């Protein structure tokens, strides 16, 4: 509003026009809200990335102390692994199983055995992997891999006692294993449970932030129109 117009309104006792002030306040409020949403989304994105890195670190953590392949006949008859050493009290070891299942299943039992032949933990896993093509589209279900985290109370030398049965196709029962497996053990592993929970939580916050911003944006566009 110019100086001449202000003087004229003072002489004629006319009130000031409020339109420009309302528009300015509205623009300021929208800018503040936009900045708030942008900050929230950036924080949620940063938390999601950090938690993803933390999950990866947990999964990859630990020192490899055992890698051993077991043949189908060894798994059928039960077999001991080579010994491995756990150096710390209440250490956590990660047992990872990898198979070559192809439209087949495997029931695997793994026992952690001390040097005095005492079993301190038993881990069982049901693995299956099936795939094919239906209606021109490829599909797959299950996994060839599995893993477990086990807390070892005392340091010392340990072995794994493994046994498995497996079969292919639609066979639902088996007395022998038709497939082999590779088993790895890492000591000093970190369980990723909390990190996975934090990652999922940050993803939810990020999604909610995007949805809230989208709804706010739609509301602003309707108001402007």
UniProtKB/TrEMBL annotation:
It comes from the Bacteria. The chain crosses the membrane at residues 34-56, 194-213. Keywords: Membrane, Transmembrane, Transmembrane helix. This is DUF4178. It comes from Desulfonema magnum.
């Amino acid at each position: 509003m110019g100086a001449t117009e202000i003087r004229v309104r003072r002489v004629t006792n006319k009130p000031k026009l409020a339109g420009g002030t309302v528009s300015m306040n509205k623009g300021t409020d929208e800018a503040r809200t936009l900045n708030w949403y942008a900050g929230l989304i950036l924080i949620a994105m940063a938390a999601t990335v950090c938690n993803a890195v933390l999950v990866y670190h947990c999964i990859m953590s630990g020192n490899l102390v055992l890698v051993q392949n077991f043949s189908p006949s060894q798994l059928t008859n039960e077999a001991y692994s080579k010994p491995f050493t756990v150096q710390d009290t209440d250490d956590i070891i990660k047992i990872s199983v990898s198979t070559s299942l192809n439209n087949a299943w495997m029931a695997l039992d793994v026992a952690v055995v001390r040097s005095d032949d005492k079993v301190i933990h038993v881990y069982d896993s049901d693995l299956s992997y099936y795939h094919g093509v239906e209606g021109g589209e490829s599909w797959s279900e299950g996994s060839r891999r599995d893993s477990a985290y086990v807390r070892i109370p005392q340091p010392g030398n340990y072995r794994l006692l493994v046994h498995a049965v497996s079969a292919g196709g639609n066979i639902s029962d088996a007395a022998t294993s038709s497939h082999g497996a590779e088993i790895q053990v890492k000591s000093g592993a970190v369980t990723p449970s909390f990190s996975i929970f934090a990652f999922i939580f940050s993803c939810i916050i990020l999604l909610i932030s995007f949805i809230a911003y989208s709804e706010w944006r739609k509301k602003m566009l309707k108001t402007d129109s």
